[in-house]
Amino acid sequence: MTGDTPKARLPRGFLDRSESEIVAQHRMLETIKQAFELYGFEALETPFIEYTEALGKFLPDLDRPNEGVFSFQDDDEQWLSLRYDLTAPLARHVAEHFDAIPKPYRSYRAGYVFRNEKPGPGRFRQFMQFDADIVGAASVAADAEVCMLMADTLDKLGLAGQYVVKVNNRKVLDGVMEACGLAGSGKAGQRLTVLRAIDKLDRLGADGVRQLLGAGRKDESGDFTKGAALEADAIERILAYVSFEASPNEGGDRMAFWEKLFGTWQDVVGESETGREGIAELHAIMRLCNAAGYGHDRVRADASVVRGLEYYTGPVYEAELTFPVQNEDGQTVRFGSVAGGGRYDGLVGRFRSEPVPATGFSIGVSRLFSALQLVKSPLLEGTAKPGPVVVLVLDRENIAEYQAHVAALRNAGIRAELYLGSSGMKAQMKYADRRRSPIALIQGSNEREAGEIQIKDLIEGAKAAQNIGSNAEWKAARPAQVSVPVAEMVERVREILARHYG
To answer: What is the mean pLDDT of residues 482-493?
Structure first.
């Protein structure tokens, strides 16, 4: 600040959005909403703020409530936090209204979430998510349904053939970690560090994850992230599992392929009962998706998917876009994940004496919107709204009459505004151009006495201007400008708008 004048600046990790972006994103959200409702999901809205204790151990430590989440104390000295995701508030809502809602309960929510983390390229402190969840269904058929919904939603958004939904199971990874000596409650913190390290595989590669599984890693800025401190053989066992890739032969027997793949994974988890249970659940999901016509090109098992949050208890999944893009270094890379989720059977049960199964996924709205822009999705075409008809004010003593013209247009359902500045006619015309106005209405004393008003078609005028060489020619031609009786103003404006916008 200089003196008492604050500096106009946007906080790091936050964004302003223009009208064109808002309108285009709204169309995308409507498409997602329609896909979710087709599957029987219903809308729910939760507040931005929850009691910090409701977020629980699955988010940052309650003893340090500002670590990872934005928190404050109310007048009762209760800690409150801005929601970190949309899942924890859903768990609280379901537990609070458990007897009143139908179960299984299918809901969708859209809204902003907040992360008190270091911002960076593509990492924000406020961003929008769009979630769909099924609470009260223990069967992996619910997980298969969620995977199919992820695929169908991306199809409806125009991304068919440019994504894959990858499915894994945290029980399988738990089995791998048991084989690495990481079982038991005393190893919970170390396991979470492992999960978060593996979740960065796409971004950091095997070498970066290897460092995070070991002593730790220093990033480009010099910040150091402490690692999981695993032994070398445990690190290589985990990396071998999460880096494994395979695909069925084109036209081959997919189910025979899955039998072979899951047999290989059983060797990795060894005698772990948890790991073998996870493999069986994965096999069942693949059978269900395959029976519904979702082939390996759309939904597949993939060991690299782990999801970083601790509350996942079973199947986990991510929707990854497969088309190439240029990163900040000019390298060609895949766009990556735009949605993800999984089963979290313990989250709702924190509030109740009995377990409550749940599964669902979240779409990263901003990231998905960026993807649709990159592929020039037809969904976003034509979303730029024209500006309002602008009624110029040439005689300020007659401003009430100009306001009456504006009211007549609005009463006819035509977007219109009165110029409220103090500039002259030339500046008012420039203002109309900057407002992307299709039409300007002009009435001086001569037109008023004649009971007329001039209608200037700014779109046609701009086209005509390209063929007019001088200001004198412009004044003589007065392109795309007509004078009509005031009684005909609304009808003629409507005709011009219909010609340009249909």
So the answer is: 96
